Amino acid sequence: MFMAAAALHGYHVLKPWGDSLEYDVGIEQDGSLLRVQVKSTTMRTRGGYLCQFRRSEQAEEHYSVDDLDLFASYVVPAQAWYLIPASVILLPTIKRGIMVNPVKTIQRDNYKYEHYRDAWGLLGKSRDELLTFRG
């Protein structure tokens, strides 16, 4: 779904062969590659949806900004995409999960990640530009 949505927004989408890389999808632009890790959630709590950013339930090793540039998290029941720079999730300390709420009016104080909802323009940024974002 992410690949189709990114292509509909005009981006060149690349799929790595196999599961040997740290990211799921590449976005090519002017000879540069953005590395995107795609996640999804259905985990509803009373405050919204929990988006988790772990490799797997058992994995000890964390993602790194050296391995990927952006997380694309899909909230399945709300059909909402959140495109979040990896630096927001991984720096200065690693966040294992964040809360988002695509079903209520945006409340900046309570839901600080809402400005990443449908932030497709981030796919047009360079790696260096994405590294400057902080959560």
Task: Please provide a written account of the structure.
This protein has about 140 residues and is of the alpha+beta class. The protein has one domain: Trna Endonuclease, Chain: A, domain 1. About 15% of the residues lie in helices and about 30% in strands. The protein has helices spanning about 1-10, 85-90, 125-130, and strands at about 10-15, 25-30, 30-40, 45, 50, 70-75, 80-85, 95-100. A five-stranded mixed beta sheet has the order 1-2-3-6-7. Strands 4-5-8 form a three-stranded antiparallel beta sheet, with no helix packed on it. The chain is globular, with a radius of gyration of 14 Å.
Q: Mind telling me the CATH class?
A: Alpha Beta
Terminal residue distance: 26 Å
- Helix- and strand-based class? alpha+beta
Strand content is 25-35%
Instruction: Tell me the series of helices and strands, N- to C-terminal.
Output: HEEEEEEEHEH
Overall average residue pLDDT: 90
DSSP summary, beta strand count: 8
User: How helix-rich are the residues, as a percent range?
Assistant: 10-25%
Q: Which CATH-level-2 architecture?
A: 3-Layer(aba) Sandwich
Order of the strands making up the biggest sheet: 1-2-3-6-7
Integer count of domains: 1
- Rg, nearest Å: 14 Å
